[in-house]
Design a protein that fits this description.
Organism: Halorubrum coriense DSM 10284
CATH superfamily: P-loop containing nucleotide triphosphate hydrolases
Low-confidence stretches: 1-6
Keywords: ATP-binding, Nucleotide-binding, Transport
InterPro entries: AAA+_ATPase, ABC_transporter-like_ATP-bd, ABC_transporter-like_CS, ABC_transpr_LolD-like, MacB-like_ATP-bd, P-loop_NTPase
Protein name: ABC transporter ATP-binding protein
Number of helices: 7
Order of helices and strands: EEEHEEHEHHHEHEHEE
Radius of gyration: 18 Å
Strand content: 15-25%
CATH architecture: 3-Layer(aba) Sandwich
Structural class: alpha/beta
Largest sheet: 6 strands, mixed
Strand order of the largest sheet: 6-7-8-3-9-10
Number of strands: 10
CATH topology: Rossmann fold
CATH class: Alpha Beta
GO molecular function: ATP binding; ATP hydrolysis activity; transmembrane transporter activity
Shape: globular
Distance between the termini: 37 Å
Number of domains: 1
Mean pLDDT: 89
Amino acid sequence: MATQHSSTPVVCSDVTRQYAGSTDRLGTSGTTVTALDSVSCEIAQGSVVGVAGPSGSGKSTLLHLLAGLDTPTAGEIQIYGTALDELSSREQTAFRRSHIGMVFQRFHLLPALTAVENVAVPLVQAGMSRSERRSRATKLLDAVGLGARHDHRPGSLSGGEQQRVAIARALAADPAVVIADEPTGELDHETGEQVLDLLTDIAADRAVVIASHDEYTLSRTDRVIKLRDGRRKS
């Protein structure tokens, strides 16, 4: 189903992300907050890498940077050979749509749309015809085990089924990188294990990054990047 992508790994080189502190009523700037401090890592094609750390450790910041939703204050992120900070805002958006799939803890499905329509949403921007979008979305739902649920809306699906729809949607544009933020956080253990099986399966020809607090989820990854106070722990 997926096309083969370059084997060049995802490379995060000495990445720092700082945010300016809020200003007081006199206009005096507050202390700069360093969310990530000189973090480096590589994520190869075919691997599932976990990102762990307590709240405030920088997990979400790292995921947003890898997804091209934010830009580093210093350092560089390359996704399969492309330096994200060298792209314009419009180019970053186009690159993200084509190369990066996001899976969120709370699914972020559109309640008025059916499962197949939700999966097809990213394909509208790709310029696919309606019939092509439906065909692609149907095949993806079949691949994640939801062949009988194509025309069900999110409200009539279980949590596990909704997460599988979200994963199918993340795969719609055949991304080289899939980033999952607490993908099992809303699921029971058995359903979470099924979702982890699916994320492991799709890693065969892409890179998968999973941020989680859950020890079992992290144990299913190939290795874990541990963060604390914005720094990578050895």
